[in-house]
Amino acid sequence: MILKPYFDEKSNIPLSEYPRPQFKRDSYLCLNGLWDFILAKADGTCLSGKINVPYSPESDLSGVLQQVKKDDTLIYNKTFTLPENFNLGRVLINFGAVDQTSKVFVNGELVGENLGGYNPFTFDISSSIKPGENLLTVEVKDDASSDVYGRGKQVYKNGGIWYTATSGIWQTVFLESVPNTYLKSVKLNPDYDNKTLNVIPEKVGEGTLTVAVIDGDKVISLASGDDSVTLDVSCCKAWSVESPELYKVKLTFGSDEVESYFGLRKFSVIEKDGFKLFALNNEPIFHNGLLDQGYFEKGLLTPKTNEAMFKEIKSVKELGFNMLRKHIKIEPLLWYYYCDILGVLVWQDMINGGAKYKSLRIMLAPFINLHINDKNYKKMGRRAMSREQYYKEAFLLQDTLFNCVSLCLYTPFNEAWGQFDAVNVTEILRKRDPSRIYDHARGWQDKGGGDVRSRHIYFRKIRLKNDRKRVLAVTEFGGYSLPIKEHLFTDKKFGYKMFKTATDFENAYVKLFKTEIIPEIKKNALCATVYTQLTDIEDEINGIFTFDRVLKISKEQIIRVNEEVYEAFNQKFNK
Fold it and tell me: Looking at domain 286-550, which CATH architecture does it have?
């Protein structure tokens, strides 16, 4: 069964669709929309008014267009009244993401604090709510230059590959109600080889968990247990890129009912003809993808609509790509759901952090073959608090995305940005989730760990060597740039190789694949490519789409190139 997307076309509330298909309840009260805000500036001045949640105040769609600086305080206020019969025993408030540190109050009472700007969090507000109208307050601090928290590509002075710093609430806020005994979370772990599904719950209270796997309206597997539950799913079809079969999962714990889904699939590294290869369901597969940083016109980190987000992923699939590398960002869970239902593989970067990056060490060293000692925490700008926070955020990311069927690969560090103990970090993350592949230090500072020999190549011809110890992948390349006058974000133009005409741009793109990528597949068993990039972002114009999503190359040409890429790989390994 292939699940479908859903869009609330009648709603006036932004991004009002249920935001968490991997763990869905019937009780749902979306709090997106207009909130009151106060921005208390460090100089003693204040700005107040209305803000459109969940868009950061730096974005057009927020209606504010104000940069929050590190010594400012951003305060949100929203009143809400629970619908009749909504409260089933406990009321939970859920935040998709709030950048960077936040305190949440209900009717003046502190209900919880969160550290880190990319992961979702939940607080039980049952004891703080009252009949009738309630006041919700969120107090936010954000330092885009902090060496402690993951910050992605945010900077106060944007330019080149670094973008406008965002702050505050930037994903959906919603209330749900649960019984006093309820499921806090669940991990769905399919075993492709043994055709089973292991269900590991996190429960509040005691009781028996019942799990049903459903195909359409028919229950095809059912099991119960007090702790973990294992189901026979041998009748389920495999999930694949070509056929993304998904099955509903119904979880019942006392009177608490949750709906989820799973796909029967396996990600691994196999050996064939003496080469290490990526495999999906034990069969070799070429990962052919785009670098996707998740910045949107007028919304920065947040799309105007969920439907626009879905259509973008669908367009990637229609162009013949089978993978997206989610670069230095965690998307809303709906984004991963769309990849699951469309059959698009996901490579997920952890969020980078640490002290300010020194260009001499980060940018120059790799080109003169000077490799850093990433155990030198002082030089790497990773003091103890920063390293501890990295682990907290990385663990939360793994837990949040565990049930995302399409997520096949994690990257702990990219281009040495905040890199430390890369080999050890990778094995710690692998122990927590052995079902994924790991690219330990992508791009520059390879320490010999992980599953992937990962190369970033921009300013020279792509010529590779395969040592046959790890999977060989070019995980960034291209960066070709074409400015289209009517579709620029700013007057500034940044790119790795600039072209003046669409014809020149398209010819260079095709030539790059035909004369450099495809020969390396045939000669050296290149197994994955990540072209830079999906879209233009601010003054960086090296996307195949403009910032407002206009395709720069003919669709037919991209499809033909991608077909040749897969054909070269399949011929190499007799698929």
Answer: Alpha-Beta Barrel (3.20)
